[in-house]
Amino acid sequence: MAVPARKTSKAKKNKRRTHYKLTAPTISFDESLGDYRRSHRVSLKGYYKGRKVVDTKD
Asked: What is the 3 state secondary structure string of the chain?
C-alpha cells in the first residue's frame, strides 16, 4: 500500500479541489422603468420593486 513520504500541508490540501469560476451577473428587464437592472438590487434610477427608495440627482 502506498504511503506518502511527507504530510501534505493545509495550503496544498485546500487548493486540490477548487472550482473557481466566473459567473455572469443576472440581468433582467424592468417593465415599469423600461430599463435593465440586476436582480435584488436598486436600479440606477433609485427604484426597487417598483417603488422609489433612493433619491438620485437627475
From this structure: CCCCCCCCCHHHHHCCCCCCCCCCCCEEEECCCCEEEECCCCCCCCEECCEECCCCCC
Mean pLDDT rounded to a whole number for the chain: 84
Q: What is the mean pLDDT of residues 6-21?
A: 81
Whether the Cβ atoms of residue 53 and residue 42 lie closer than 8 Å to each other = yes
The average pLDDT across 14-24 equals 76
**CA-to-CA separations, 43 to 7, 14, 32, in angstroms, rounded:** 51, 38, 11
